[in-house]
Model the fold of this input.
Amino acid sequence: MNLLAVEHVDTGYGPVAVNRDVSLTVGQNGIVTILGPNGAGKTTLLRSIAGLVKPRRGTVTFDGRDVTALHADEKATLGVVMVPEGRHVFADMSVRENLLLGAYCRKDRDAVEADLALMENYFTILAKKRGAKAGTLSGGQQQMLAIARGLMARPRILLLDEPSLGLSPLLVSELQGIIIDVREKFRAAVLLVEQNAGLALSVAEQGYLMNSGRIVASGGIEELQQSSVMQELYLGKRAQAKGAL
Amino acid sequence: MDIFVQQLVNSLSVASVTILIGIGITLIFGLAGIVNFAHGEFLMVGGMATWFMVGAGMNFFVALVFAGLLVGALGFAAERCLFRFTLNRPMNGFIMSIGLSVILQHAVIRVFNEFQKSITDPVGLVWTIGGVDVTAMRAIVVAITAVIVAITYFGISRSRYGMALRASVSDRDTAELMGIPVRRYVTGVFIYGSLLAGIGGALMISLFPITPFTGSVIIIRGFAVSLIGGLGNVGGAVVGGLVLGLVDGLSAGYGYPEWTDAYSLVVMILILVLRPQGLLGGTLGPKAS
Done:
């Protein structure tokens, strides 16, 4: 059974329609990516899955339960946790407080302490910066903190919105390992929204390509990579795509 | 010197009421983005309720607790029935709060009347502290406020709920993503702020007479206090309240008393011109994403 299923979802803000008839699934322990150019509606889709935006139509099912109408905090409690784009760490609060806030929805207080140690052990920079205000961290460090904070909730699925944004190539390759570990070490499925195709294609097994608010191609990652729509729309290799046809 | 100490205690007791209302204004603004103009009327209702209960023979300090609870319930009702629906449009909430303030004023006039009400000093003692005569009730007002300020401050800076509250103030959407029930915190802040306004009203009527229109005067002072300290910053409301209270009290003692309100507003204007974010720095309200 799929862990997450999005079916025929429309989203929008006020008079502006963003997503149209979007359907996708993420399996148990899957790593799935949504690729697409800037403004394709990827973030809005993710926000509607996380509960920050109400879908106008369609359903979101998590672990066999209809969660379409739930608010973000209720979904986080169920295990659907989003790491927002641009990190959004609580800048005036310490690194440690940020991590503790990630675990707000958990009842098992003792295990939270253990997880705090686990995160500081895994993201070593966070141990060094434990008492520092999150706003004083570098962009890369803030991204690590945002992911660690999301993991503190012990999510069953982690929704990552453009984690590579603004990171150096070196950090992006580190991020690659972290995303794999989210599944291997922290036992959460991943839905990754990215513009950086290199990163997304290297970690995901399934992919969806989005353009103008719709899914325009989908499939296994190899398959998606080869598809003409991908070549044409996303990688901008129009000529090459034509040649291949 | 004696007179100076007396003026100081007097100023602090006046500042206390302003601080209590300022904390409520600043908390509600920080989380909900609303400057609740009915907050002054909440205080007035607390004072009127105290007047009524004391008149019916109740002990003042018991009446104070009931006034706080009553106004807390009023805040709860206002949030559930009105402000909940304007959460995403703070400007509408602001306008609505002006309407609510007029309704509350006239409801009180309807139930009682428009004349000023007062109670006799509930303690009726003068303490001599270090050779200086101090009205006991004024000292008690200052002490109660100090306790409330300490509880609020440590609650916000140390407790888990305070941490979640600060997170919600700094980034509402992300706080929700972390599983923090922000809407419940908004309700909680309305109740707490209103509770403090109710207590403030009870303390106020123990010092001065109040009328159904007291709220519209006190809201300006409460708003000034929050602005001076930095809107959304609880420590700022305390500092602002002290600054304004001291300016008030000392100018009444040493300057021209008829200019008292003008002095404090001039101080507010000066601070806002020189330091627009307030003395301790405010939050400018909830950030939209």
